[in-house]
């Protein structure tokens, strides 16, 4: 019997060259920045193991690994707030993905369009 | 003598309410998405512990914790490719920051404007 896939025990589904390029954290995850493709708005950040990335690359829908629930989570299955994949890129050192999507409705579970809306911190503004 | 600050041993510098809102990974870090403020282009993703966030919020310049070098890294000190802080937001569940900046030159150490340029993965495009 095959072992159950998990971030610590990913199935061999990704292209081996891509799998070798991923720089995973201790939990087997890379960060996934999700961006609205036509406005460039940053919607949210999620986490992906090899299996979540495989599903995202092959299905047209974004799937994350939920660190809090410890399970796969295909965005929109419960809320209807689907993320349709437009493109996926891996950064220079392999620990971050940029997923460009068409977001249906609110990206945030709190109901705001993005997970950063209205959550600004006091910061000193820099200038040259 | 005070202990040397590190991700595992942050100094008590952040506002306690903010420090309590951070959901750090096992290494004491949160993800920091860096975005060009006027084009919304996603430039790179870095990592911050409490001290790096404190420096970023108070100095007008972006400082990361380098996971590979295990040291603080103020963007641009070596390359000249400074990131001037425009705004900082923390997401709904406290594990990701959105840092809007004015980026001088290339954000990527490879010389490309962003760390995602020219690094697209083959992906199935989704549609409603």
TrEMBL record, chains A, B:
<comment type="pathway">
    <text>Amino-acid biosynthesis; L-histidine biosynthesis; L-histidine from 5-phospho-alpha-D-ribose 1-diphosphate: step 3/9.</text>
</comment>
<feature type="binding site">
    <location>
        <position position="91"/>
    </location>
    <ligand>
        <name>Mg(2+)</name>
    </ligand>
</feature>
<comment type="similarity">
    <text>In the N-terminal section; belongs to the PRA-CH family.</text>
</comment>
<comment type="pathway">
    <text>Amino-acid biosynthesis; L-histidine biosynthesis; L-histidine from 5-phospho-alpha-D-ribose 1-diphosphate: step 2/9.</text>
</comment>
<feature type="domain" description="Phosphoribosyl-AMP cyclohydrolase">
    <location>
        <begin position="44"/>
        <end position="116"/>
    </location>
</feature>
<feature type="binding site">
    <location>
        <position position="93"/>
    </location>
    <ligand>
        <name>Mg(2+)</name>
    </ligand>
</feature>
<feature type="binding site">
    <location>
        <position position="92"/>
    </location>
    <ligand>
        <name>Zn(2+)</name>
    </ligand>
</feature>
<dbReference type="Pfam" id="PF01502">
    <property type="entry name" value="PRA-CH"/>
</dbReference>
<protein>
    <recommendedName>
        <fullName>Phosphoribosyl-AMP cyclohydrolase</fullName>
        <ecNumber>3.5.4.19</ecNumber>
    </recommendedName>
</protein>
<dbReference type="GO" id="GO:0008270">
    <property type="term" value="F:zinc ion binding"/>
</dbReference>
<comment type="similarity">
    <text>In the C-terminal section; belongs to the PRA-PH family.</text>
</comment>
<keyword id="KW-0479">Metal-binding</keyword>
<dbReference type="GO" id="GO:0004635">
    <property type="term" value="F:phosphoribosyl-AMP cyclohydrolase activity"/>
</dbReference>
<feature type="binding site">
    <location>
        <position position="115"/>
    </location>
    <ligand>
        <name>Zn(2+)</name>
    </ligand>
</feature>
<dbReference type="GO" id="GO:0005737">
    <property type="term" value="C:cytoplasm"/>
</dbReference>
<feature type="binding site">
    <location>
        <position position="108"/>
    </location>
    <ligand>
        <name>Zn(2+)</name>
    </ligand>
</feature>
<keyword id="KW-0028">Amino-acid biosynthesis</keyword>
<keyword id="KW-0862">Zinc</keyword>
<comment type="subunit">
    <text>Homodimer.</text>
</comment>
<dbReference type="GO" id="GO:0004636">
    <property type="term" value="F:phosphoribosyl-ATP diphosphatase activity"/>
</dbReference>
<comment type="function">
    <text>Catalyzes the hydrolysis of the adenine ring of phosphoribosyl-AMP.</text>
</comment>
<keyword id="KW-0378">Hydrolase</keyword>
<dbReference type="GO" id="GO:0000287">
    <property type="term" value="F:magnesium ion binding"/>
</dbReference>
<dbReference type="InterPro" id="IPR026660">
    <property type="entry name" value="PRA-CH"/>
</dbReference>
<keyword id="KW-0963">Cytoplasm</keyword>
<dbReference type="InterPro" id="IPR038019">
    <property type="entry name" value="PRib_AMP_CycHydrolase_sf"/>
</dbReference>
<keyword id="KW-0368">Histidine biosynthesis</keyword>
<keyword id="KW-0460">Magnesium</keyword>
<dbReference type="GO" id="GO:0000105">
    <property type="term" value="P:L-histidine biosynthetic process"/>
</dbReference>
<feature type="binding site">
    <location>
        <position position="95"/>
    </location>
    <ligand>
        <name>Mg(2+)</name>
    </ligand>
</feature>
<dbReference type="InterPro" id="IPR002496">
    <property type="entry name" value="PRib_AMP_CycHydrolase_dom"/>
</dbReference>
